[in-house]
## 1
Amino acid sequence: MSAVEDKLAQLGLTLPKTATPAGAYVPAVRSGNYVYTAGQLPLVEGTLPLTGKVGGEVTPEEAKELARTAALNALAAVKSVAGDLDRVARVVKVTGFVASAPDFTGQPGVINGASELLGEVLGDKGVHARSAVGVAVLPLDAPVEIEIQVELAD
């Protein structure tokens, strides 16, 4: 088991299987020393625990937890092409999408769930640039979607 997966275990988390794509794409692609993930939904064993708009059917606190789950799924996607999460030199960028009720403006707080998880698991290597974007709707009526870009050490 890798040091990163040991850290996940200390946090009471396990790396899930990589989610099966819902369209004509792959979960992650490596280009040189970089891995780019597709948008990862907060699927748990293939199912969304909650659906709907943040600030409507889904609370910001629930959405923040879903962002953590989506980030964990993104790490699984990285591992699927990198082979070992210990090869991650740093998380370069996180992009978070929040399906938002019309008056909801707390997208950064929701995406903190993903950012905080990456910091807990990867330490300084998890510090990253980020965008938190409110959108009208996401695939499968998911409340959040996360994609990450990481640099690998060779």
Note: Residues 2 and 11 are 14 Å apart (CA to CA).
## 2
Amino acid sequence: MSWTIIITLIAVGIVLVLLEIFLIPGFISGVLGMIAIIVGVYQAYKTYGATSGHITLSIAVAFVVLLMILLFRSGTWRRVSLGDSIDSRVNVIEEDKVKKGDTGQVIARLQPAGKAEINGDIYEVHSMTGIIEVGTEVSVSKVEGYRIFVKPLKS
């Protein structure tokens, strides 16, 4: 087997492993890449002897390590990773602020959860009776921990 084929096998293997790490989640391209690298190094040992095999193995390992270092330092992870953070929070309900019997107005449709303004503050609330449209006056039925349950006021 010629050096051209051995170098091509190792190069294709390295590309497949890098694709596995950075682009294609899964298993197949990484395994195929490792197989290609191993076959390329094995063929160097088999065709050209131990010294050439050692050199080929050393160069392949050094090249993979160098590429990994360059890719990590170049900020590749920042470009392909999700940069958003979740900044929502659970209702923080002070005991004096919301209690059974308080009234408010729905500002985001309750189906069965949504938002309502109660005592001048906006809370995530849960409907006791199903869907409640925006603008409907509601009263607090119960407060359990961080969950507020409401029902529409009868007109």
Note: Residues 3-76 form one domain.
## 3
Amino acid sequence: MEAFFFFVLLFFGGSALAGSVKIVSEKNEYLVESLGSYKKKLEPGLNFVVPFVDKVVYQQTTKEKVLDIPPQACITRDNVNVTVDAVVYWRIVDMYKAYYKVENLQNALVNVVLTQIRSEMGQLELDQTFTARSEINEILLRELDQATDPWGIKVTRIELRDLIPSKAVQESMDLQMAAERKRRAAILASEGEREAAVNSAQGKAQSKLLEAEAAKKATILQAEAKKEAIILEAEAGKQEQLLKAEATALALEIVSKTLNNDPKAQEALQFLLAQNYLEMGKTIGNSPSSKVMFMDPQSLVSTLEGMRSVIS
């Protein structure tokens, strides 16, 4: 009998000892009540409680959690029905508030998220809900963080995943987008035709300008070539006349020295001068700026005499 009581005492003692030791894992916290009232919070590690008096009433992780928000029907400011769903990232920062300040924390969080989404969608038009999604997420995050602060939780991130308008609205949007694409295509086609016409006109104008420049340069080159030819011809004629004059002077000098005091010298000199006179008249007659020169043949003799006196 004593052995039986010993084993009973040993069993209850072991159970009490085992129940007094609580090991809490990392990123977890336990709430302990003593005789129905809150006593303390157990931190990660080895903790001790009073057997049969202290009771762990709530245990939860402080890690970040993911909450899927089911699709919710909303009405935008322009009276368009859209279905919205979201995903919320949150974590517990105060275990005491999370247990004692709200009943069924996760259900409460889902309801407040849905309420905030409907409220925010009602302030926007349909087009804004598609173009300003990041701004909507920021607004929802700020409002939910403030609304859930009394519950000891923190909303770290919220993302709207799908915004699905009603079927009739989707069909209207498809028609609108098709019309918009056709309009843009028509505008691009007209702009392309206009640019092509402008480029063609500019090309023709540039071509005509280049042709005119080429003709101008060709005319200038031709005029310069003619000018050079005339100058060269004049130079050649001048040089030829100088050579002829030198040759005539030399011939006169030779004849004058050879036939000095010879009666026939005058006739020979007169013949040479007459010949030069005829050639000079021919040259003057062929010149573009020709002039008529009159000379008395009888004066050739006096001219000869003067030349002879100069040569002698």
Note: The mean pLDDT is 77.
